[in-house]
Every structure is written in structure tokens, then in C-alpha cells.
Amino acid sequence: MPSITSVDDQRYVKALSHPLRVRILGILEEQPASPVELSQVLDATLGTISYHVRQLNELGLLELVRETPRRGAIEHHYRAKPRPKSGGATWDSVSVIAKQAVIGAELAQTTEVATRAAGVGGFDGDHARLERLRLSLDAKGAEQLSKAVAKLVDEAHKIQESSTRRSGANGSRTETALVAMLFDAVGAPDPSAGRPEPTQKPRKPRKRS
């Protein structure tokens, strides 16, 4: 089955339509795992996990990396294939349903990874950063910031490649996550707006005789 290259691919939208499949993809993007291992991590039955792994594999989002003999059976270990991301020049042409599925999945995975890391000291190191900015930009400024984020992602990939070359396949490394988001803060409250003034003065209650 050909790989999924477009977020508008119906196979991709179908894959992201179930929250458990989203969680499975999030884990398999970090490291290979078998349905047995996934069922233990996600606290779900092996039958349920196996079904969703099979669905993801049939949709072309997984690849088999190894097979391990276990008590007369074969345990299959999968990892997630690279998948299309949100944003970019073609994002405007993507359907609303596909956008909602992709963004919802990305946010769910990001929240889960960050929450899990925070619970075990993942933000305690000097290299850790957590920044949230609220900016007011014109069209040119928004375009410049978008390019800056894209440049950061490219630089992160180069740093990863250099790190791998220095340490080798078995060298000591720190598993690190980088999340970059740029979006229009639609619907955010405006503190400067204040409360609207009432159009009429409230009437005084009439005294009963």
C-alpha cells in the first residue's frame, strides 16, 4: 500500500478518527512496540489494541520492524511511518474535516507526551524550555515568524543528525521532545476590552403598597 503523503488522504482521516489509534501512533512514533507492549502501556485489552494496530497497518501508517518468538507465537513489533504534518503552502486547500482530525491528534499527542514528562522531571534540566507568547503581528510579521519556526525545525533535524554521528548508534543520549506551534489566537479573551457598558440603567424595583 502506498504511503500517505497528504493530510486529505481519507485513510489518514480515518486513522485519526479514534482516540486510541491516535495514542498508539504517538507511542510508535517515539519507539517500536508490539501490541502486547502497547496493551500494557495503554491499559487496554490485547484484542482491542491488536485490532487498532491492524487497522493502522492496513491504512499504511505502520511498518513491521522485527518479529520475536514468544512461547510458540510470533510477537510483531511496529513503528510509525513518517506522516504528513499540518501547515505549509498547501494547508489552505485541505478540507475542514482533515484539518480538525490532524490538529486534534497533534494536540492530544503533545499534551500526553508533555504531561508524562512533567510528572517524572522532564522539565527539570537546564536545557528545558517552556515559553508561550502572545504577539500582535501584521501580515509580513506573521510570514516572518512562520519562516522562523520552519527554520528552527530544520535546524533541529540537523542537530539530531550531528548528535547521531558523534555518539553513534549505541552512544549515550537524552531523549528530547521539541514542540513548535504557530497559530492565530482566535477566540482568545482580550483583557483590554473590559466589560461592556449596559445600554440601559437597571430599573429600581417598585415598592408594594
Describe the structure.
With 209 residues, the protein is mainly alpha-helical. Helix content is 44%, strand content 8%. The protein is built from six helices and two strands. The protein has helices spanning 10-15, 19-30, 35-42, 46-58, 96-119, 139-167, and strands spanning 62-70, 73-80. The longest helix is centred in the last third of the chain and has 29 residues, at 139-167. The protein is globular, with a radius of gyration of 23 Å. The model has no long low-confidence stretch (mean pLDDT 82).
The gyration radius over C-alpha positions equals: 23 Å
Span between N and C termini? 84 Å
- Structural class of the helix and strand makeup? mainly alpha
What general outline do the C-alpha atoms trace?
Answer: globular
Q: What kind of sheet is the major sheet? A: 2 strands, antiparallel
Strand order of the largest sheet: 1-2
Helix content: 40-55%
State the low-pLDDT regions, or none: none
Strand share of the residues? 5-15%
Order of helices and strands: HHHHEEHH
Individual helix count? 6
- Total beta strands: 2
